[in-house]
């Protein structure tokens, strides 16, 4: 196995999950990694572990560097099982190491693994000396779970923030500068699908870390590539995303039964483009919900189209809205359209669902019965144009 040294005496000893394609509802078309870090000092430290089926892979990497029983401390930054489910095997294999975690981390680990461990609970600002270096801890509740915390090594200016700043990419490379710009697309998808609802907390945490005045020249997240070229860039990008920074771009997200809502969607798209708006057409059964959410991150406007089924919206639209509402995307304006046979109801149900959650929904709607005629298609083009002008105007406010 290759040995990856991030800093002198600090190694990546994680595992690569090449084949995972669904990460609790998030499509991981490129797989992922579970990153664990080994720090050699007077006391040897393992920061986080890997998903249980990958324990042997991690142990193999550790064994290339030191005899695993020489690990003195295991830091658990986060209880979620992709990072902690090897801890029982680690504890078994290396004896009874000190398990350093947050207060909620201890409770979570006890509830998950139901076995005694030699816990040490730490709080924000607390430091543990391990010899030449120290480990400084920063609690980061809800980034991603209430137990989450960051570990910082000041002597190496290295931040290990677990889920924050991650990306789901399985790669033979370990550093972001080895793979090029594509990494930002994966970081965006990860942020939008995992961390978007926590945007206000991210802004507070970044501010808190900045006020602590800790210099950072490398960030080792728990998934994907390590940020070593310009870690400030991903921090600033997180701030921008958390503030809802978006561009003049509109998504047309729709489903269709017999092609009528699709005809409207394409006409609406034509209107958007004719008005000079960057736009994208996304059919709900051809695009995974997590890919649409990634596209939403940089779009100011979203037009949602659904046919009426049993007096309500199409089930795929219900699925998408349920997922999207949980992620609480900020600063978007929504428009609604759809087709119906007799009673209608899809647009009404979509509006109710969005307004209940206090999303901004354009008062104007577009509907057509059965198959849209040329006049209705013209109206749909005009609807797209008008929505484009609305998005442009609001972007300038
Ligand atoms: Fe990668 Fe919240 O676990």
Task: Give an account of the 3D structure.
This protein is α/β, with parallel strands linked by helices and about 400 residues long. The chain folds into two domains: about 5-240, Ribonuclease Z/Hydroxyacylglutathione hydrolase-like (Metallo-beta-lactamase, Chain A), CATH 3.60.15; about 245-390, Rossmann fold, CATH 3.40.50. The protein has helices at about 55-65, 80-85, 85-95, 105-115, 180-195, 200-210, 230-240, 260-275, 290-295, 315-325, 345-355, 375-395, and strands spanning about 5, 10, 15, 20-25, 25, 30-35, 35-40, 45, 70-75, 100, 120, 125-130, 135-140, 150-155, 160, 220, 245-255, 280-285, 300-310, 310-315, 335-340, 360-370. The strands form five sheets. A seven-stranded mixed beta sheet has the order 1-2-7-8-9-10-11. Strands 17, 18, 19, 20, 21 and 22 form a six-stranded mixed beta sheet that branches. Bound molecules: MU-OXO-diiron. MU-OXO-diiron binds near residues 83, 163 and 222.
Gyration radius (Cα, Å) is 24 Å
Weakly predicted, low-confidence segments: none
Number of helices: 12
**Structural class, judged by helices and strands?**
alpha/beta
How much of the sequence lies in strands comes to 25-35%
Roughly how many Å apart are the termini? Answer: 55 Å
CATH topology of the largest domain: Metallo-beta-lactamase, Chain A
Strands of the biggest beta sheet: in what spatial order?
1-2-7-8-9-10-11
CATH architecture of the largest domain: 4-Layer Sandwich
The CATH superfamily label of the largest domain reads: Ribonuclease Z/Hydroxyacylglutathione hydrolase-like
> How many strand units?
22
Bound molecules: MU-OXO-diiron
Helix content: 25-40%
Task: Report the mean per-residue pLDDT as an integer.
Answer: 95
Could you say how many structural domains there are in total? 2
* CATH domain class of the largest domain: Alpha Beta
């Amino acid at each position: 196995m290759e040995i990856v040294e991030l800093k002198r005496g600090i190694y990546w000893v994680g595992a690569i999950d090449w084949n995972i394609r669904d990460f609790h509802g998030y499509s991981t078309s490129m797989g992922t990694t579970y990153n664990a870090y080994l720090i050699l000092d007077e006391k040897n430290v393992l920061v986080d572990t890997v998903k249980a089926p990958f324990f042997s892979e991690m142990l193999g990497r550790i064994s290339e560097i030191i005899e695993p029983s020489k690990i003195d401390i295991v830091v658990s930054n986060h209880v979620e099982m992709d990072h902690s489910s090897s801890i029982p095997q680690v504890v078994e294999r290396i004896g009874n190491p000190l398990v350093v975690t947050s207060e909620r981390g201890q409770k979570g680990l006890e509830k998950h693994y139901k076995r005694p461990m030699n816990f040490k609970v730490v709080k924000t600002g607390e430091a543990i000396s391990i010899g030449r270096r120290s480990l400084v801890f920063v609690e980061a509740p809800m980034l991603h779970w209430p137990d989450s915390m960051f570990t910082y090594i000041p002597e190496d200016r290295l931040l290990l923030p677990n889920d924050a700043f991650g990306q789901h990419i399985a790669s033979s490379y370990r550093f972001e500068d080895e793979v090029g710009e594509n990494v930002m697309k994966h970081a965006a998808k990860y942020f939008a699908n995992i961390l978007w609802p926590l945007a206000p907390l991210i802004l507070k945490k970044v501010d808190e870390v900045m006020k602590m005045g800790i210099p950072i020249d490398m960030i080792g997240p728990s998934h994907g590539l390590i940020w070593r070229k310009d870690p400030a860039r991903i921090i600033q990008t997180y701030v921008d995303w958390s503030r809802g920074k978006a561009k003049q771009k509109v998504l047309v997200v729709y489903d269709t039964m017999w092609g009528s809502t699709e005809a409207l969607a394409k006409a609406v798209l034509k209107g958007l483009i004719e008005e000079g708006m960057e736009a994208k057409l996304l059919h709900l059964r051809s695009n995974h919900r997590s890919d649409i959410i990634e596209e939403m991150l940089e779009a100011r406007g979203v037009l949602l189209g659904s046919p009426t089924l049993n007096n309500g919206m199409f089930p795929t639209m219900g699925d998408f809205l349920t997922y999207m509402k949980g992620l609480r995307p900020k600063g978007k304006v929504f428009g609604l359209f759809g087709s119906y046979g007799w009673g209608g109801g899809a647009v009404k149900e979509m509006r109710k669902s969005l307004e209940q959650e206090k999303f901004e929904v354009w008062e104007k709607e577009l509907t057509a019965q059965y198959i849209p005629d040329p006049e209705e298609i013209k109206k749909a083009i005009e609807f797209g144009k008008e929505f484009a002008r609305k998005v442009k105007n609001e972007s300038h406010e």
